[in-house]
Amino acid sequence: MSKPRILIARKIFPEVIERLSQHFDVEANQDDMLWSDAELTERLKDKDGALTTGTQPIGAELLAACPRLKIVANMTVGYNNFDVAAMTAAGVLGTNTPDVLTETTADFGFALLMATARRVTESEHYLRAGKWTRWSYDMFAGTEVHGSTLGILGMGRIGQAIARRGAHGFGMNVIYHNRSRLAPALEAECKARYVSKDELLANADHLVLVLPYTPESHHAMGAAEIARMKPTATLINIARGGIVDDAALAQALKDRTIAAAGLDVFEGEPAVNPWLLQVPNVVLTPHIASATVKTRLKMSDLAADNLIAYLAGRAPLTPVNEPAHPRLSRN
Description:
By secondary structure, the chain is of the alpha/beta class.
C-alpha cells in the first residue's frame, strides 16, 4: 500500500521532515521558494496533505483543483490564510498550533513594549551614527513601564500571559477589553480589570494588541481609535497585520498623536508601509514573536502530529474546522 503524499510548503527543521517521511511520501521545499498561487496549486494536485506556514492561501479555487487534498496543517496559531468556509464545504480539515507558543510570544511582546517605551531603537541608531558626544538629562527620555497602566486588547492565552508579566513582574495596573469577559478567577490570576474599548484607549499607557484577525477586527485600530489614546502612550502590535491601519499609525507617529509604537506584524507583510520606515519613534521587527528554536520546533512538531493523526484516520489534535463530509472518508 502506497504512503499518503504531502507537501511541506516552506523550509522547516530537517528532523521534522525525517519524522514525516516515516509516514508519508514527502515533497519538501527546503530551498524555501516562494511559490505563486498557481505553483502552489500545481504542487498540491496530487497531495493528500500539506504543512503550511500561514503565508500560503488555501481558498476555494485551489481546493477545487486539488481533489485529493484532505488536510492543511498550519505551523501557526493564526489561520487567516485559510478560507475556512470553503475548506469545510470541500471536506478539507485545517489545523493550527495554539498553546505551544504562548509564553514565548508573550516574552517577545513585553520585550517590544519595553524597547518602545524606552526608545531603544532610536537611541541605538543615534549611537551607531556617531552622534553620541555628550550626556544630557532628557536624552532619549522615554516613558515608565513599572507602575504604569497596561492595556490589552484581546485577552486570550497570549494576552493573559502578557497581563501576568505586567502585573506580577512590573507592578502595572492591567486593564483589558475582549469580546467576552474572563471568569473572575482568571481575572484575579492576571490582576486584570475589564473595561470598555473606549476606556481602554483613553487610559492605557501601553496598549498591546493580541486579538485574532477577522473581517470584524480589520483596522480595529484606525485613525479615530489612535486619536483617543494618550499623547504619551505607546501602541504594540504582536497580533496580525490589518488590525492596525498602518498608514494612519504612521501619520499619528509623525504628528506625535501618540509617543511611539512597536510593530511585529504589518498589513501586506513582508511589505511594510514606507511611511513607517520614515518615522523615528517606532520599533519594527519582522514577525518574529514566536522565534525561538525550541518554540518553532514545537510548532513544527504539532503541525506534523496533526498530519500524522488525521491521515491515519485518527482525530487531529488542534482542528480549526469540522468538515461535514471529510474527503478522508471517500478514499
